[in-house]
Amino acid sequence: MKGRLIALGLALLAGLAAPAFADEPIADTLRKWGLLGAWSIDCSRPPDHADGTVLSYEIGPDGTVVYRRNFGDVTDEAEVLAAEVSADGVMNLEVYFPAIKQKRDYGLMLDADGGLRAIYNRNEKGEYTIKDGKFVATKKPTRAQHKCG
Asked: How many whole angstroms separate alpha carbon 42 and alpha carbon 53?
C-alpha cells in the first residue's frame, strides 16, 4: 500500500512538472504563447537573407501549423509536428522540412519587450546550429525578431 501511495505521489508530481499546454492542439499552444504570425529582425525591409528574413507560423486549412520561411529569392515551408512550453517559458518546437527530409528542434523565448529569440536549433542527430542563444559557428548571440503587422 505504501509503495502504491509513493508511486501515485510521484505520478502526480510528474504531471505538475509537465510542460504547459502539452495536451492541447499545436495551433492552440502557439496561439496562447503568441507565436502565430510573421516575424522578422526588421519588418520594414523586404524579405532577404539578412535582416529581412520573414519567418511565419500559420494555421493551415486542415488545422496543422505551417512554418514558412521567406528569404526573398527563396521560400520554403515545413510542418510543426509538436509544440510545448517548458516551465522556464521556452517554446519548444519540432519541425519537419519535407524538401530536405529533415526534422529540427527549436527553442524560442520571448523577451520582455516582445521580441522573439532563438535559444536553440538542432537536427535529429543532436547537432546544434544555435545553442544557449548563440550561433555555434560564430558564438554571436541570436538577434531578436519582432512581430510584423
From this structure: 8
Delimit the domains of the chain by residue range. 2-147
Based on its alpha-carbon atoms, the radius of gyration of the chain, rounded to whole angstroms, reads: 17
Beta strands at 91-97 and 75-85: parallel, antiparallel or unpaired: antiparallel
Sheet with 102-110, side-by-side order of all strands: 134-135, 128-131, 116-123, 102-110, 91-97, 75-85, 65-70, 54-59, 37-40, 146-147
Name the pTM for this structure.
Answer: 0.81
Phi, psi of 140, rounded to the nearest 5 degrees: -85, 145
pLDDT tens digits for range 3-57: 443 333 333 333 333 344 456 899 999 999 999 999 999 999 999 998 899 999 9
Please tell me what DSSP assigns to residue 93. Answer: E
